[in-house]
């Protein structure tokens, strides 16, 4: 298998966490040999019920609402979203400056943010973070 570098298309893990680049679509995740079988099973049995295989994680999370079944599935997995957004930062002497800030946001807070706010802040989803412990406790 030949690997090439693609921005935000990666899969990493440490002792307690899975990190998935947001530009992956579900079909690519299912084909990736690095993705654990348990996560593939969860995607196949729960997330693919209301999601197309060519949907990217970035798109899924950007437009996700609390009413979506996939939202409840990711909440069970204790998912977090790493995003880059435009925020106002106070500078010395009371002046403000708009800067891009990369931060990790819990999924419920991110889903509460409406589309107009996401567009205003120019939110870019970079990474999905999933708890391995929550994934292991998940029944398939």
Description:
- This protein has 140 residues and is of the alpha+beta class.
- The protein has seven helices and five strands; from the N terminus they run ββααααββααβα.
- The protein has helices at residues 26-31, 37-45, 57-62, 69-76, 107-112, 115-120, 132-137; strands spanning 11-13, 17-21, 80-90, 96-106, 124-131.
- A five-stranded antiparallel beta sheet has the order 1-2-5-3-4.
- A hairpin with a 3-residue loop joins strand 1 (11-13) and strand 2 (17-21).
- The protein is globular, with a radius of gyration of 16 Å.
- It starts with 10 loop residues before the first strand and ends with a helix.
Main attributes of the structure:
globular; 34% helix; 140 residues; single chain; 7 helices; alpha+beta; 5-stranded antiparallel sheet
Instruction: Characterize the largest beta sheet: strand count, sense, and whether it forms a barrel.
Output: 5 strands, antiparallel
Q: Which strand-content bin applies to the residues? A: 25-35%
- Low-confidence region ranges: none
Number of strands: 5
Which class of secondary structure composition applies to the elements? alpha+beta
SSE ordering = EEHHHHEEHHEH
Overall form: globular
Radius of gyration: 16 Å
Instruction: Tell me the distance between the termini.
Output: 29 Å
**How many DSSP helices?**
7
Helix content: 25-40%
């Amino acid at each position: 298998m030949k690997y090439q570098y693609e921005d935000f298309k990666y899969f990493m893990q440490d002792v307690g966490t899975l990190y998935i680049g947001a530009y992956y679509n579900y079909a690519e995740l299912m084909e990736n040999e690095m993705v654990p079988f348990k996560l593939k099973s969860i995607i196949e049995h729960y997330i693919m019920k209301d999601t197309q295989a060519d949907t990217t994680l970035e798109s899924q999370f950007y437009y996700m609402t609390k009413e979506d079944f996939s939202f409840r599935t990711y909440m069970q997995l204790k998912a977090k979203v790493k995003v880059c957004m435009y925020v106002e930062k106070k500078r010395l002497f009371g002046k403000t400056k708009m800067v891009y800030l990369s931060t990790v946001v819990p999924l419920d807070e991110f889903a509460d943010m409406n589309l107009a706010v996401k567009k205003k802040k120019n939110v870019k989803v970079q990474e999905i973070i999933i708890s391995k412990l929550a994934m292991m406790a998940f029944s398939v």
